[in-house]
Automatic annotation (TrEMBL):
It is found in: Cell membrane. SUPFAM superfamilies: MFS general substrate transporter. It comes from Psychrobacillus faecigallinarum. Residues 236-425 form the Major facilitator superfamily (MFS) profile domain. This is MFS transporter. The keyword RNA-binding does not apply. InterPro entries: Atg22-like (IPR024671), ATG22/LtaA_families (IPR050495), MFS_dom (IPR020846), MFS_trans_sf (IPR036259). Its main location: membrane. Signal peptide: none annotated.
Length: 425
């Protein structure tokens, strides 16, 4: 297979930059920082985890509601990159702002985190849609997996720098408190994100589009309505989205809540950060491996493998007690986290009409984000009822089982009926 093109590499490099947000803000440093802030303000540890769960549910609900219509508008010529830039700027600005909020204002951290998450996840809706513009169906799984692979490697670098600064501050080797060291990590995240977004803005263009019309917003609502009404011709897409709704819920929830869960179990912040760094390093080759194995065995079969691994993860998490257990759990997640996300994106990309890629990735987003509401709420409610986080994590196993049952009914992309583009040119 030929080397990656300039457009493919530029697209993948955005993942290299933006994934710093995923590890530092979503998964590792910010959750620990927030938990410390809430605890210092007298908030119970279980309650602070619940508040974080509800915050994630709120911002995912907002994006889920606006995603499809924004995606539909973005299918018009020249709109995709404009929407991408708006959410990119919102995410970067809010991430940097986290560094300047007073430490005792834990609720302000959650508000700012909401805007940062809206920006990051919103930009990813249009970033995912650009995969249609940078590559072909034959190369899509490999390019998608490369994006996730580079994301893990690229995010590990600013994470390592941030971790070293925080550890040195904790050991009083540098004239910084651990709180201020974490603030620097937020600024590093924003800077890294900006730098590696530049190739994306310079080299990636919207190739597939619909010509502009008068009253594009009104026309977009009409196109969206037509797609919903004629959903029967998109049976393969619809079934895949239902399966995706369930299994990606569990994946996203485990990513977002892993450090908060570890903290509730009494694991030290330093141990959590080290484990998460190694997870990033291990996940990179496995994400790329998933892409190569998908080319040999099919994407669908590799999705089965990834879901099965997560079922094991949920089961093992129920018995988690020590740092050694957390290491084992993290390595299991590392083997499949990037692969299942990358192949879901490329599998969906092969099923949709290219001219309406943003509209359909808007649906992809809404199913993914509504799923992300259910998972955190499930953990939050179960934790409140039982008083134990382990029961909440174990309950996610239901979502993976339902997801794999529905996925069995989804045809392979080359065997699925091709939907007719909606008002495409």
């Amino acid at each position: 297979m030929k080397k990656f093109t300039k457009e493919e590499n530029s697209w993948a490099l955005y993942d290299w930059g933006s994934s710093a947000y995923s590890i530092i803000i979503t998964t590792a440093i910010f959750p620990i920082f927030y938990k410390g802030s809430a605890t210092a303000a007298g908030v119970d540890t279980n309650d602070s985890t619940v508040y974080l769960s509800y915050t994630i549910a709120i911002f995912t609900f907002i994006l889920a509601m606006i995603g499809p219509i924004l995606g539909t508008i973005a299918d018009y010529k020249g709109y995709k990159k404009k929407f991408f830039f708006f959410f990119f700027f919102l995410g970067v600005a809010a991430t940097a702002l986290l560094a300047f909020i007073p430490y005792d204002k834990w609720y302000l951290f959650l508000i700012c985190y909401t805007f940062a998450a809206l920006g990051a996840t919103g930009a990813n809706v249009f970033y995912d849609g650009f995969i249609i513009d940078v590559t072909t169906n034959e190369r899509m799984s490999r390019v998608s997996s490369r994006g996730y692979g580079l994301g893990y490697i690229g995010s590990a670098i600013p994470f390592l720098i941030s971790m070293v600064i925080i550890l040195l501050a904790g050991a009083e080797k540098i004239p910084l408190s651990e709180i201020n060291a974490s603030r620097i990590a937020f600024l590093i995240t924003a800077a890294w994100w900006i730098i590696f977004a530049i190739p994306m803005f310079r080299n990636v263009k919207q190739i597939h589009y619909i010509e502009r019309e008068k009253n594009p917003v009104a026309q977009s609502f009409k196109r969206l309505g037509k797609t919903i009404i004629e959903i029967r011709q998109y049976r393969a897409l619809f079934l895949f989205l239902i399966a995706y709704f369930f299994y990606i819920d569990g994946v996203g929830t485990i990513i977002a809540m892993s450090t908060a869960y570890g903290t509730d179990l009494g694991l030290q912040a330093t141990d959590l950060i080290i484990v998460l760094f190694v997870t990033q390093v291990v996940a990179a080759p496995f994400a790329i491996l998933y892409g190569k194995l998908a080319a040999r065995f099919s994407e669908k079969k590799m999705l089965y493998v990834g879901i099965f691994v997560y079922i094991i993860v949920c089961t093992y998490a129920f018995f988690l007690e020590t740092i050694a257990d957390f290491w084992i759990l993290a390595m299991l997640v590392a083997t499949s986290q990037g692969g299942i996300q990358a192949l879901s994106r490329s599998y969906f990309g092969k099923l949709i009409p290219k001219e309406n890629s943003n509209e359909f990735f808007g649906f992809y987003n809404i199913f993914g984000k509504f799923a992300s509401i259910m998972g955190p709420l499930l953990i939050g409610l179960t934790t409140q009822i039982t008083g134990k986080s382990s029961y909440g994590v174990f309950s996610l196993i239901i979502l993976f089982i339902i997801g794999i049952i529905v996925l069995i009914r989804v045809p392979e992309p080359d065997k699925a009926p091709k939907p007719v583009p909606v008002d495409a040119v």
